[in-house]
Amino acid sequence: MVPNALQRESRGLSGGNRQAGARRFVVQVLLLAFFWGASVGLQALAGAYDVDLSGYPDETGHFVTGVLVQDYLTKIPPPSLVPFAKEFYIHRPKIAIGHWPPLLYLIEGVWFILFHASRQSALALMALICAFLAASICDVVRHRWGTLAGIAAGLLFIALSFVQTQTSEVMADMLVALFGFWATLSFADFLVSRRAPDILRFAAFALLAIFTKNSGLYLALTPPIGILLTRQWGVVRSPLLWLGAFIVAIPTIAWVAWSSKYVASSWVEKPGLEFFLRATRTDFVFLYLILGPCLLFLTAAGAVHDSIRPRSSRDFLPLTLLSAALSVLLFQSIAPAGIESRFLLPAIAAMIPLIFSGLIWIADALRLRAVPMKVRALALLVIGILVSPHQTFAIPHKPYRGFPQVADFIESQPALRQGAILTSSTADGEGLLISEIAMRYPSSEGFVLRASKMLAQSDWLGRDYKPRFESAGEVSKYLEDLNVDLIVIEDRAGFPPLEHQDLLLQMCRENPECWRPIDIFQGKHAPDLKGSKIFVYQRIGVSDPSGKKIHQEMEEILRRTIGQ
């Protein structure tokens, strides 16, 4: 399902050609469904549908923000956005608009309206995005090497353990990779056609990638690197190129300027030569671990083959894909947002067609006349997969952290649904409980409070940590004023203790007349992580669920957090 490929195939269709075009479209839809099914199957094998959103800490923020957009879109007439978002945050304090651009959340919101906000529907959406990307890779490869090679390319992408991990998480990186891939194909078309529709499609897909996540800014580097690799110097003189750049630049600059006050607080590195060299070195290690030595060798061979082959064919797509992969690596070595393998997903997608270029080149060089070239290529691919390290295609299992059972218990207690719940964790457990509750009942019911916000202060990444209270008695008085009904504490092994959580545990254990421990698990499906425990304490007695004090406290927290 490649937009520019569909456009190329539609040109000149008439009469009988329209039937051929319709058949091609049906084939592409069937391939999309096939890849979607394969992605969902691998998610199920990984256990993603049965556990918390525990793959990466950002998952819960992405999910809950999608629920926010769903709630907003279903309000008739629509209320004022900022007050609505603030009220939602007071009840479910785990939203991320501002820190991340809004496109993923808009897609999630519409999807949740259609298919309900749940773990299953969110993961099905991630699998669909992955399937679109796999189908796009398939389309590129099958146009060069045939349908079977295209299907193999799509399956190879989906089956990579790295891609399986990304597909089993509710994250923005896969959507960035999809829009970035389509933008790259559009720019390759523009290098050939020099036509306005192609550069306008590049601009549109580049903006979609950037407004999904700031890592989509790597696409600013793809055109200059692509022009350099293809040696199409004349395109620099085309006004259309600069029109596309202008269309992308204006909204991007406006967004970056507005969101910089939120994004800068999440930078974990300082830009400079030392970071550039370390990030570059680490990213190449990531590529080796993701693809393994055989696939990485085939990628390099494909890049060499597509670089040295004659330019007369005017097929600039392979080198444009190479420029996209290089753009990702260069951008991630410059931007100080951290060094993580997930940022390389757009590069991996662009490298899969290069793997098949290298595969065909080597198969053709073997000169085994008795064996058809496609059979040689298939044999080489199978050998490459078989000798790859186990982790290249292993099924990654998400850990079960236990919060679905906690949320089930809360949902079964009408008083708790309307009351105030305090959640605390030495890791990312606060967001896990909030997301599980957001799946079960409306955000207008009750409050979920984060101990890291109510009992302590820190920045987005937990730096500059400072507890707000010095004794368990002070914590007890504060929670009594807030009328907290339930306390959920996750103690994660291997994470440093937090002073406010230690005080919270001390308060509960020293006041059994006020706080009754609840055995949520009762021997059923306890958390998978060794050494991790969840403690649940319920207040003895009746509290006032009005939430007036909670509103006052959360308004103050919002003012401290976003400066409003």
Structure write-up:
Helix 9 (173-193) crosses helix 11, helix 13 (273-308) packs parallel to helix 15 (345-365) and helix 18 (403-411) packs across helix 20 (429-440). The chain has two domains: 3-12 and 27-393, no CATH class; 403-562, no CATH class. It is 63% helix and 6% strand. It has a five-stranded mixed β-sheet. Strand 1 (420-425), helix 20 (429-440) and strand 2 form a beta-alpha-beta unit. It is mainly α and 564 residues long. The protein starts with a helix and ends with a helix.
Provide the fold topology.
Elements: H1 3-10, H2 16-45, H3 58-73, H4 81-91, H5 103-115, H6 119-145, H7 147-159, H8 161-167, H9 173-193, H10 196-210, H11 222-230, H12 239-263, H13 273-308, H14 317-334, H15 345-365, H16 373-386, H17 390-393, H18 403-411, H19 414-418, E1 420-425, H20 429-440, E2 447-450, H21 451-454, E3 456-457, E4 466-467, H22 472-482, E5 484-491, H23 499-510, E6 515-518, E7 533-539, H24 548-562
Parallel strand pairs: 1-2, 1-5
Antiparallel strand pairs: 3-4, 5-7, 6-7
What global shape is seen?
elongated
User: How much helix, percentage-wise, in residues?
Assistant: 55-70%
- N-C termini distance: 44 Å
Q: Please count the helical segments.
A: 24
- Percent in strands: 5-15%
Largest sheet: 5 strands, mixed
What is the β-strand count? 7
Unreliable spans: 8-13
Radius of gyration: 26 Å
Strand arrangement, largest sheet? 2-1-5-7-6
Structural class: mainly alpha
Number of domains: 2
Task: Please state the average pLDDT score.
Answer: 89
